[in-house]
Design a protein that fits this description.
Blueprint: H1 2-16, E1 22-32, E2 38-47, H2 54-57, E3 66-73, E4 76-83, E5 86-98, H3 112-117, H4 158-161, E6 167-176, H5 182-206, H6 208-211, H7 216-234, E7 242-243
Helix pairs in contact: 1-5, 1-7
Length: 248
């Protein structure tokens, strides 16, 4: 899954990017944590103006971007989203990956207060709906069968018998401290993150034959190529970025 995750992220960014909206990759470089473990730090700018609801566009400038900073120490990753003109807005996503079907009750070891406030949801990539304009039959896990592995399609009850299986446990915290809009924006952000996660993991599964068998070095080279293509769509030709990847 580590290979599939990296492949999916960079291909998804390139597919979703146009001259009007999309993803600019600012940094993509190795990083070492306090325990000496080497991972990857990626910083992106997400240009999303045309994709926001009208009520939200009325609150923001015509051109804006959200900064995404992600550290990947697989099987643990953290991603933070901030907005420069909204200092009291942030989304923090913590993820742990485990080789089970969702049976760990408190994967992130949350405190008793956090557990009491937690809203627990299960996302099944086979049946979770995606926006109609995002649906593609080729990316439907219920219709996809891998030629390389024989996996799929995902039939009802697949989580109970499919091997191998992996669960991504995510804790999502949204903060928007603006009176009158806090609940509305936080609810919108939670729904948006849910849609993104569902689509991304459906793609990771149905793109399996594209990434299965790749080494980490090969997927990092693919990452460099795709991020370069993505930046060319949204940036002038004189712009540059830092892409310094390594195997981790």
């Amino acid at each position: 899954y580590h290979i599939g995750q990296l492949y999916m992220i960079c291909k998804h960014c390139e597919v979703e990017t146009s001259k009007e909206d999309g993803v600019e990759v600012v940094r993509n470089e190795p990083v070492t944590n306090e325990n000496g473990v080497v991972g990857q730090l990626t910083e992106k700018r997400l240009y999303l103006s045309s994709r926001l609801p009208a009520w939200m566009r009325s609150l923001i400038p015509n051109v804006f971007y959200i900064t995404e900073k992600a550290t990947n120490f697989y099987p643990y990753t953290t991603t933070e989203y901030t907005c420069s003109f909204l200092p009291r807005f942030s989304i923090v996503v913590e993820t742990r990956y485990e080789d089970n079907n969702g049976t760990t009750d408190n994967c992130h070891q949350l405190s008793s207060d956090d557990l009491a406030a937690r809203k627990l949801e299960y996302l099944d990539i086979a049946i979770e709906p995606v926006p109609a304009y995002k649906y593609k039959e080729s990316e439907d896990p219920c219709k996809f069968k891998s030629e390389k592995t024989g996996r799929g399609p995902l039939m009802p009850g697949w989580r109970e018998y499919t091997k191998p299986i992996m669960c991504a446990y995510k804790t999502i915290r949204v903060r928007f401290e603006v009176w009158g809009f806090q609940t509305r924006v936080e609810d919108f952000a939670q729904r948006a993150v849910r849609d993104i996660l569902t689509l991304a993991h459906r793609q990771a599964f149905t793109w399996m034959d594209e990434w299965y068998g790749m080494t980490l070095e090969q997927v990092r080279e693919y990452e460099r190529e795709m991020f370069h293509r993505t930046n060319k769509k949204v940036l002038p030709t004189s712009a540059s970025m830092t892409i310094n990847t390594s195997s981790d």
